[in-house]
Each structure stands twice: as structure tokens, then as C-alpha cells.
Amino acid sequence: MSSQHPSLKADNTLGLEVHTQKRIVAETPAAILAAWQASQQDQTPFLVLGEGSNVLFLDDFAGTVVLNRIKGITIQDEYESWKLHVGAGENWHELVKSTLEKGIAGLENLALIPGMTGSAPIQNIGAYGVELKDVCEYVDVLNLHSGETERLDREACEFGYRDSIFKHRYQSGYVIVAVGLCLPKQWQPVLTYGDLKTLNPAIASAWDVYHAVCQMRQSKLPDPKVTGNVGSFFKNPVVTQAQCSALLARFPAMPHYLMPEGETKLAAGWLIDQCQLKGYRIGGAAVHQQQALVLINADHALPADIVALARAVRARVGEKFDVWLEPEVRFIQAQGECNAVEVIA
Residues in the active site (predicted)? Predict the structure, then answer.
């Protein structure tokens, strides 16, 4: 695609030099709807982005990219909880910080997760023992076909581990415009992961948790403004108890976390690290030296470099552990989103 087409380099945190036919910044649902209707008339692909912190462009995009910048935060002070209505174009980390500054706790474990609030429900973001589904009351979506806004309550969102209805039935033809959060006033710290275990639950404040989370993330995750990345590239794999037991017999030090459904979650970063892949490089793409779960744009990487690296990492982990990693990041081709596992299988 020629250089007269708008660049998306600043709109994807991997910092890949890709282009699109049209790039539109939308501050209202009506602007998103108008852009979609125009793309329908032209019969060209259509994609809505937040901050591009969870996408890998495989090619230049052959249509319209809309940046969702719907702003606005309203807070209702109710008897037992705070109710927040947040525009999809609000930065997630700034939301976490601003709620704490107002004395509202509950989002601190999710500090420093990159991206916009509207992207949070899509993969049910989570970190350090808390997931979006724990605090989400509803998600407002714009139905592009009818032009109406629909409200899905938490149940209807079908949240799973890094999963939701927005990756399935509501993946195309719908755009998230707002998220409703419910934060109980009877706050309880969640201190089950990492350095949070060292905090005393009797005296730890939400700010203590926030600072500990920021410290942990900053110590192992590169800043995308400095080094292009999408945070965790792969999901932590979920295996059966039998599979986990067999692996523990061979690798007794393997971190593992029991899940409510009776399955076991493994640490993808640890699995990759055990394959001695930190610093491993293909073209301009590399596995991060501090955190093996992060693939970085080390030096003017091409999309093909990132794909080849992801494929190599998946194959190496699969050979060693018979555990097959799945990307957490969304893969975008010229015509739209595609199946990430199929691309790197």
C-alpha cells in the first residue's frame, strides 16, 4: 500500500509500520455508525481499535480503521457500592488511578494494563487474582445493523478466561461503547499472586496494592512507548488435573494454579523460559529478556518476524511439554480478524 494511505504505526503498541485505506477518530457512537455505513457502501473491511495494545497486524489493512474515543465517566454513590459508567475510549490505567484518587477501591489489581476501557471486556482482562468479570455489571454495545445500543449484563457477556461473547457472537457487527462497573464499598484486598502475598491483609490499603502491582509490572514488562510489545503475547494454558500431574512428575518446580472449574492454569512465561528462549530472535522480533511471555519489536520488526517468532516459541514449548500455547493477541489480516492459532500452528 502506498505511503499516501494513513500509517497505523502509532495506533498499534507493537509499533509495526502498517497502513490502512482510511483512519477515523470517532468520539461518538454516531461517528462509528457513519463510518461503518460508509464501509458497507464501499464493500470494504471495517475495524474498530482502542489503543491497539492487543492486536498484531499481519498486513496493511484494506479498509477503514476507526479509533474509538468515546469519553465520559459518571459515578453513582449507592448505599453498598460505587456504580461507574465509563466510555469505551477512556484509558484503562487512568481510570484505575482516578478511581483510587476519589477513594474508590476495587480496580487496583488491574493497574497498568494497557488499552482502553472498551477493550477490557473483549478478553476479560485480568491480573494478580482479579478479572474484569469480578467488577463488571454491564457492557453497552452499538448494534451496527440496527443503529441501536443494547445493554448486556454480566451474565450475557459470557466471560471466561481471556474470553467473552465479544470474541464470538458479538465479534462483528457490534462495537462496545461503554462499560458499567460495580465496586463494593466493603473492600477486601486480593493478595493471592506474586509480591502481593507479602502484604499484610489486615493493614494493606488499595494504594499499597496498586503500587505493588505497578512495581511488579514495570519490573518485568517493557514500556510499549519505548519497546514495541502487546504485553502477554500468549494465554496461560489451562490443562486437566491429569495432564498437570504428569507434568509435575517431570517438572516438580512448575508453577500451577488450581481453577474453580477443577482445571489447572499453567504459567506460559515459565514454560517458554524453560525452553531457554529469553532473548531468542527472528528478524527484528525477539523474546523479551526479562519476561518470556512478551514478544517485542526489537528492531524494525516486520509482521512476518513476529509471526515466525510466535510460531517458533509455540513449537518449542509444544515439543518440550506437549502443551500448545494460544495467542492472547488478536491477529488482523488485510480483510479483518483471523484465527491466530491457525496462523502460527
Answer: 162, 232 (proton donor), 328
